[in-house]
Amino acid sequence: MSKTIIVTGGAGFIGSNFLFHMLKKYPDYRMICLDKLTYAGNLSTLKTIMDHPNFRFVKADICDREAVFVLFEEEHPDIVVNFAAESHVDRSIENPGVFLETNIMGTQVMMDACRKYGIERYHQVSTDEVYGDLPLDRPDLFFTEETPIHTSSPYSASKASADLLVLAYHRTFGLPVTISRCSNNYGPYHFPEKLIPLMIANALADKPLPVYGTGENVRDWLYVEDHCKAIDLIIHNGRVGEVYNIGGHNEMANIDIVKIICKELGKPESLITYVGDRKGHDLRYAIDPTKIHNELGWLPETMFKDGIKKTIQWYLDNKEWWQEIISGEYQNYYEKMYANR
Ligand code: NAD
Ligand code: TYD
Question: What average pLDDT does the structure give for the chain?
């Protein structure tokens, strides 16, 4: 059956990959992207679907109640998937305010619109960072959906706040919600301020590769398409009111990722430069995905060794996409964050 889905933040990394996945898999669905086009959103990312007959792009802020309500009035969506967020931990340390505004208040506006116009499902795209971190010397520990919320950064605190609000709207107003908490994603269209694309771009320019602290911090990496497939399953078959963790048991230390990138690109490890640590830097993230596997049959399909090769190749084949980004305002950002680190 045909459905209309509003995807917020669809001009960003994961949201755009989700739009590509859905338009391909469901030829009769109408997909609407609502995006403010902040520094992290790029229309060039969506150029291959801009003229697709089942796709509409709307430039708007999820905090703009009037604009959001007008869009609901026009489209009467069946499902809303809320990806829109300020997403970079380092920026949240510099400037927390906008994280609270978009990530919490924006979530409220989207859910208020869902309440007013009626909805089959509101899905909140959250993060494993709401659970805080795990110690490096306890590889037996993983985040489950029952792990207490215990945030470290203004980013994770804002995402956790939104999650609590989403669950409150379910309990208080009966809004049919689901939440997914995924580990670190990588793949095409990843904004070059994040670890993997930043290291690829710097390595290709023979620039220093800035590793925070000791480089021993561990992240649990998942290929972006696998995340999109998990969300697709949750919005169609997930149980209302539930939280689903998403992750592929692919834990890697940052330094090992950077070394792989050097090797794949034929660049010397001497480019690696240890720099001052991130404030409050989470040590280790590791997801237990048993629930989504048992209930919805989800399993990651792309192994890291293949996914990282595909990703590096994508950055080699799509230089204009990221070079355009790093030639602009990004230069000031980079100078500010890394010059005296
Ligand atoms: P991103 O920063 O690449 O993209 C965010 C998008 O949201 C951009 O297109 C931006 O323009 C848009 N946006 C920002 N503020 C907005 C606003 N006020 N109104 C409308 N649009 C706005 O982020 P991403 O990495 O694609 O992450 C998407 C979601 O997934 C976020 O909610 C994030 O918390 C979550 N998440 C990300 C990861 C990851 O590894 N990147 C992992 C788990 C969860
Ligand atoms: P990031 O991609 O910002 O994702 P997150 O903070 O959400 O996990 O960072 C991934 C890891 O890489 C994190 O431990 C911080 C580290 N990192 C660096 O060492 N150097 C860098 O320049 C960046 C951007 C991140």
Answer: 98
Q: Are 149 and 131 in contact (CB under 8 A)?
A: yes
Catalytic residue among 129, 220, 226, 251: 129
Establish whether residue 255 lines the binding site of ligand 2, counting it when its CB lies within 6 angstroms of any ligand atom.
no
So what's the pLDDT on residue 1?
80
Please state which CATH number belongs to domain 4-186+223-247+281-302: 3.40.50.720
Q: Where residue 284 falls among pLDDT bands split at 50, 70, 90?
A: very high
Question: Tokens 């592929």 identify what position?
Answer: 248
Q: How far apart are CA 32 and CA 165, in angstroms?
A: 24
* Ligand 1 pocket, CB under 6 A: 8-9, 11-15, 35-38, 40-41, 61-63, 83-87, 102, 106, 125, 127, 159, 182, 184-185, 191
Please check whether residue 188 is in contact with residue 311, taking contact to mean a CB–CB distance below 8 angstroms.
Answer: yes
Q: Is there a catalytic annotation at residue 288?
A: no
Does the pTM exceed 0.70?
Answer: yes
